[in-house]
Amino acid sequence: MDRQERAALLRIDGGLRRDHELDAVLRRSGLGLRSRARDVVSGLRPRPVLLSGLLSPGLLVAGLRTSVAAVFWAFACCWALTPGIAFVVLCAGTEGRRSGR
Fold it and tell me: Is the C or the N end of the chain the one with fewer CB within 10 Å?
């Protein structure tokens, strides 16, 4: 996106963030995604990413050595969740920096 498009999007985003009536309507309709996402992100810290990042290779090695299907499934679930949790934590870390632009 060029500079003009980014500036236009920032103006639109700023206007939507200040629109308390829209926020109230979305909250009443069950679509208050902003507040729910903020609650989820505020509860996540880098520790779960580290834990699942260390657990995944351990499960992989255990699965390869034992050839037990349950261990492979545990590895697959853990490995699939790790990038998702990491993405949420990284987005939470940059949320404060976005408003400073």
Answer: C
| CA–CA gap between residue 17 and residue 40 (Å, rounded) | 19
Q: Count CB neighbours of 33 within 10 A.
A: 10
Is the pLDDT higher at 62 or at 26? 62
Q: Is residue 7 packed enough to be buried (19+ CB in 10 Å), middle (13-18) or exposed (0-12)?
A: exposed
- Amino acid identity, residue 30? G
Q: Measured between alpha carbons, how far is residue 49 from residues 30, 46, 56, 61 in Å? A: 29, 5, 10, 19
Inter-residue contact 61 to 13 (CB < 8 Å): no
Mind listing the pLDDT tens digit for each residue in 21-35? Answer: 777 776 666 555 555
